[in-house]
Write a structure and sequence with these properties.
This protein is an all-alpha fold. Helices cover 87% and strands 0% of the residues. The chain contains 21 helices and no strands. Helix 2 crosses helix 3 and helix 15 packs parallel to helix 17. The longest helix has 43 residues. The radius of gyration is 24 Å and the shape is globular. The two termini are 43 Å apart.
Amino acid sequence: MQSHNQGPSTKQANQTFQDSRNKMLSGSAWMTAGSIMSRILGAIYVIPWVTWFGAYSTQANALFAKGYNLYSMFLTIATAGIPSAMSKLVGHYNGLNQYIVSKRFYHTGIYVSMAMGVVCATIMGFGANILADGDANVVPVVRSLAWAVLIIPLMSITRGFLQGYNWMAPSAMSQFIEQLFRVIYMLAATYLIMKIQKGSWVAAVTQSTFAAFIGALGAIMVLAYSYMHHSREMNQLVRDGESDPGVSTFDLIVKIVYQSIPFIIIESGIIIYQLIDQYTFNRMMKWFGSYTNYQLNAVYALFSFNANKLYMIIISFASALAVTAIPLLATARAQNNQESMRKQIENALLMFYFVMIPATLGVEAVASQLYTVFYRYDAAGITVLQFAAFVSIPMGMYTVAAAMMQGISENRRMIKFLFIGIIIKFILQAPCIWLLQGLGPLMATGLSMFVVNYLILHSFNMEFGLHFNDMAKTTNQILAYSLIMFIVVKALMMALGIFISPYGRYTAFFLLVIGVMVGVAVFTYLALRYRLADQMLGARVDGIRNRLHIQ
């Protein structure tokens, strides 16, 4: 009799996990597509953009990076972590069938986030001289970005609300449109100023950063259409769900702010690390040698802009997983389903390895060709990119693991782990810069993130008892197939480099296309042939295997 009672329960639990896994796969597919497309657009524009700046390109890259680091921090504060908090809270209350509360959260969150946007935009506008840290060129860039900070909270809160329903497509499409509008405006403005008017490179960078405001307008239009498209379905869920429990608007605001503050701190993790680099790198380099500001900006641009633009494409894979994981884990937490939470955490970690390890080794294999296509051949820049590609693994892991900690409401513990990481970053920054110069900030970040990730995974294991032994076989398969792919592509690039010059942009692009195609083909074949893809993506892979005649 006992066995009979446990059977349906186990079956139901497995079905619940499978449904959650399908939602995560579908959501991750949309978010990955949107994130990757926007990241690719955000990287491809660099090719003409850098070319039009000519001799000023390195200084323009450094200025752009300094402005955007500050913008990213203020944007996180302006949105008050509300998009992710909104996604979590909506997932939580939807899991309790209280759709009316979810909708009220959205309406209340709009007022809170827009008020924060006004405050942060005002600080950026009037405090630009202080934030510039003595660099007069940074002032107009920061002020141009204040306009985007003013309206992006509205865009972000709507994204978070729709994600709470696991509707990831609107967010993905809005990301792409936002980036498309931004790139079109910044390229048009740069070409007009630099090539037609022969104007100031600082003015061109300023207009390039103002493009963030133009992009946000495009995204808002997409999200407004999506909200209206789903409004009938949401209203039906409200009518079918439980009645309003009578939570006051003030209580909703308090709950939003209470949930948002940890998100501000945690989501700012990578940005905080970048700001540490921005405000310490030049000073610390001068401790160990005599360098001009021009030289320091050139080195700073290599890791903060040039390499960053390319390895952030890899990290965007992780970000897509993170966004999808939060509402699913919040729903499981609301239902107190420990088994579902454990399985979802394990699945998210394996998906992370499945995406990040081959992507990182792939970038490592074609780093020379990739860097040359975007920035022209530069041995120092290629070395920085190769090093940064490996650092992207702990940074991407932080993005996913921190999001899962938030999803299970371990915000206080996550903030503690991040605080430990920041202290380690400060401690290691000077000795790493002394030993490795331009690679030093990346090394300090990588080591610090490694410690933070260890603390998070240890916390998961203590609470849920993760099945690391069961995960090891899959993880080892991913690593083995990725290494085989890396060796094949690297050998191919070296062999073709004997006959085709790797130093020109067009020849490098030709080699890059071949390398990417071969790398994708090798890893895909191995993943399908030895059933790794089945473990990660489910039974739907059979159709792909049959069409490709892989047994």
